[in-house]
TrEMBL record:
Residues 114-317 form the NADH:quinone oxidoreductase/Mrp antiporter transmembrane domain. This is NADH dehydrogenase (Quinone). It is found in: Cell membrane; Membrane. PANTHER family: NA(+)_H(+) ANTIPORTER SUBUNIT D1 (PTHR42703:SF1), NADH DEHYDROGENASE (PTHR42703). The keyword Cell membrane applies. It comes from Azospirillum lipoferum (strain 4B). It is a multi-pass membrane protein.
């Protein structure tokens, strides 16, 4: 798993760096915070499943706050404070939960096992901005540059989710025995975030809520487990990372051109920005799971896992969420990118380096969707995971 994630994080860092050289993303401190965030996320993956990885991943989250702060505006500083609050509470809850269960090696006797799972649920919800504690993510999306939010979603959040994948191997009881709680959180995020995305008029908050919606899918795959659930979560998180880089990058290109935030009231941006428009469309197709993209590989497995986990009712929830996501992206494409130009704006052209980054991340999910086996993680759990025994109140098993 890490042998795929580490090159992905490095490729994202390279792409975002090239993009940020020609389309500035913050003040001078932004570069230091962005580089340190990615470096710590990579180090956490190299460390495997353990306290070192947990602390490194938490450090990456705290440094990501600096990227938001470097926006330099009062709105950015307010969003950074909200994000810092979420990160601090998530770290406190997560560290406490992992200490109680000894990183998954021990299942404590009741009620300590319930307390640990409750704290872990709160930590995960805060880290990923899930419904109902999503308060920081749309605020960060509105106040920050496009690639700031993209790095948080595609590197920091993806790293946090992959820690959950490792925990699913070590301590499946956390997800199996408390499945209704995890399913409830996933369903709230699926339906709530999809509705909130439809309610947005500005594109960056819409993409932020779309990320929360997608995390609901991935969380269901994690709870379901099995071949379909775990493969769906794995392919889904890879598509999630690549998709958000290109979607936020395309909107950032439009903001660069217009000199302001992009809303549904804008029209015809495909005329001055054909590459960004094409990239956004390809990114949207992959993100909502249209074949032959990597998103499709993940989503249809998640549908199968959802049907096995919750039957027709949960499948209906998945269909409803997908329909709203499709409507959300179709509306954005039709109105913002393909709509007629009502009042031509003499804006800045898209720099060539940014265009190349957008095309690379837009085409990659299609190529990987045609040959996904190269991204398949090893069947065996991570060596750090395999080395951990599982204990109960009665001893080791």
């Amino acid at each position: 798993m890490d042998m795929v994630l580490i090159p992905l994080f490095l490729a994202i860092a390279l792409g975002v760096g090239l993009y940020a050289r020609v389309i500035p993303q913050g003040n001078g401190g932004w570069w230091r915070f962005a580089a340190a965030t990615v470096a710590l996320a990579v180090a956490a993956r190299l460390a495997g499943h353990g306290w070192a990885a947990t602390l490194l991943a938490s450090a990456a989250e705290f440094l990501a706050v600096g990227m938001v702060w470097s926006g330099g505006t009062a709105e950015a500083r307010a969003a950074a404070r909200q994000y810092l609050t979420a990160v601090a509470l998530a770290a406190l809850c997560g560290w406490t939960a992992l200490a109680v269960i000894q990183l998954g090696a021990v299942r404590p006797a009741a009620p300590w096992d319930r307390l640990a799972v409750a704290l872990l649920l709160v930590s995960v919800a805060l880290k990923l901005g899930l419904v109902p504690v999503y308060f920081w993510l749309p605020a960060v999306a509105r106040a920050s540059s496009a690639m700031t939010t993209a790095l948080i979603v595609a590197v920091v959040d993806v790293g946090a989710f992959c820690e959950l994948l490792a925990l699913r191997d070590v301590a499946p009881w956390i997800f199996v025995d408390f499945a209704p709680l995890w399913i409830g959180l996933a369903v709230l995020s699926l339906l709530g975030a999809a509705l909130l995305a439809l309610a947005q008029r500005e594109l960056k908050p819409m993409l932020a809520f779309s990320s929360i919606d997608d995390m609901g899918y991935l969380l269901l795959g994690l709870v379901a487990g099995g071949a379909d659930g775990m493969a769906g979560a794995w392919f889904g998180i890879l598509g999630h990372a690549m998709g958000k880089i290109v979607l936020f990058g395309a909107v950032g290109a439009a903001e660069w051109h217009l000199g302001r935030a992009v809303t549904l009231d804008d029209r015809g941006l495909s005329t001055p920005l054909p590459v960004a428009s094409a990239a956004f469309m390809l990114g949207a197709l992959g993100f909502i799971g249209i074949p032959p993209t990597l998103g499709f590989i993940g989503h249809w497995r998640l549908y199968l896992a959802g049907a096995e986990l919750g039957g027709p009712l949960l499948l209906a929830v998945l269909y409803a969420s997908s329909a709203m996501a499709l409507l959300c992206y179709v509306r954005a494409i039709h109105r913002v990118w393909l709509g007629p130009v009502e009042a031509p704006v003499a804006g800045r052209p898209l720099p060539r380096a940014a265009a190349l980054v957008l095309l690379a991340f837009a085409i990659a999910p299609v190529l990987f969707g045609l040959a996904p086996n190269g991204l398949r993680p090893a069947a065996e759990p991570h060596p750090h995971v395999a080395a951990l025994p599982t204990e109960t109140a009665g001893g080791v098993k």
